[in-house]
Amino acid sequence: MSTVATPVAAPRHYKIVDLLRGTPILGPVAALVLACIFFSTQTSRFLSGENFSLILQQVMVVGTLGIGQTLVILTGGIDLSNGMIMALSSVLMTGLYANSGMNPILAVLVGLLVCVAFGVLNGWLTTAIGLPPFIVTLGTFNIAYALVRIYTTATVTNVADPLLFFGNTFAIGKTEITYGSVLMLVLFVIGWFMLSSTRAGRSVYAVGDNPEAARLAGIHTNRVLIGVYTAAAISYGIAGLVLVARTGVGDPQAGQTGNLDSITAVVLGGTSLLGGRGQIMGTLVGALIVGVFRNGLQLMGVGSIYQVLITGILVILAVSVDYLSHRSK
């Protein structure tokens, strides 16, 4: 008499791993929720509209930088120049008005055009010559750093009112929200739509996943990469405008850690440093994770150096999970 073997159900933990692989944003969202729960039990000031608005203000510059950094990392590259490109655009936007009397709107356009030039340069050096993105953007980081110091070594304080618009607030109930925070969220929505619902967005993922296969499928990989670096640089220019609105000055010392801060947000948001996998909304969650941890620890009276320490640990954990996931796959 023959017997039919009863199928053995797959262990539950495999299903969870598969779910996390298919939806990498779930892990960062869970981490953000758990962090909020923890800090709400440690200080009564954490769960307030005013505090959450403050967190959004604190992450809106890094979050905007992270949009461009996400695009680059999705293609398998990395951009070390973004913080200094942001700083260069911010001192140009403020300095052209304060020192040369240029119309502030025109000054913003000049700052954005300079960012576009850096984006095209990064993309061209990466594609036409074939230099590694790490080396290319390290070089343009130093170029932008030098140009900032050549243009000005002093903080620009005479800032035109239009440049401060995104630092203004409006009220939702009793909570004041800055227009810069809204701008950052709108840019994330636009980035999400472009990556998830357009042919150009699908090409970005294809190039990051397998450039040769993408080329054989008819995708102009060089054109995609140049477009990615250019679009990323535009987001850095917008970040420069948001930075000016938040601080009220054009600071030549700004942006020196912008590359590391934005990479941290991207990695914590579940985007793979190997390229081809991730979601831009994850970067928003990653930026919020950093903002929540720093804000919560500050409310608890923990020193700033420990905030940096914990951020570093979180980055190592996020990258480790990514690499282990790829290895098991």
Reconstruct the topology from this structure:
Layout: H1 12-22, H2 26-42, H3 49-74, H4 82-100, H5 104-127, H6 133-151, E1 169-172, E2 175-178, H7 179-197, H8 199-209, H9 211-216, H10 221-247, H11 258-268, H12 280-299, H13 304-328
Antiparallel strand pairs: 1-2
Description:
The chain has a two-stranded antiparallel sheet. The chain has helices spanning 12-22, 26-42, 49-74, 82-100, 104-127, 133-151, 179-197, 199-209, 211-216, 221-247, 258-268, 280-299, 304-328, and strands at 169-172, 175-178. It is globular, with a radius of gyration of 21 Å. It has one domain: ABC transporter involved in vitamin B12 uptake, BtuC, CATH 1.10.3470. With 329 residues, the protein is mostly helical.
What gyration radius follows from the Cα positions, in whole Å?
Answer: 21 Å
Work out the count of structural domains.
1
Q: Can you give the mean pLDDT?
A: 89
Q: N-to-C SSE series?
A: HHHHHHEEHHHHHHH
What's the helical proportion of residues?
over 70%
* Global structural class: mainly alpha
Which overall shape is indicated by the principal axes computed on the Cα atoms? Answer: globular
The CATH class label is Mainly Alpha
How much of the sequence lies in strands comes to under 5%
Number of helices: 13
Report the CATH topology name. Answer: ABC transporter involved in vitamin B12 uptake, BtuC
User: Strands across the major sheet, in which order?
Assistant: 1-2
Biggest sheet record: 2 strands, antiparallel
CATH A-level architecture: Orthogonal Bundle
According to DSSP, the number of beta strands is 2
**What is the terminal-to-terminal distance?**
40 Å
* Low-pLDDT residue spans: none
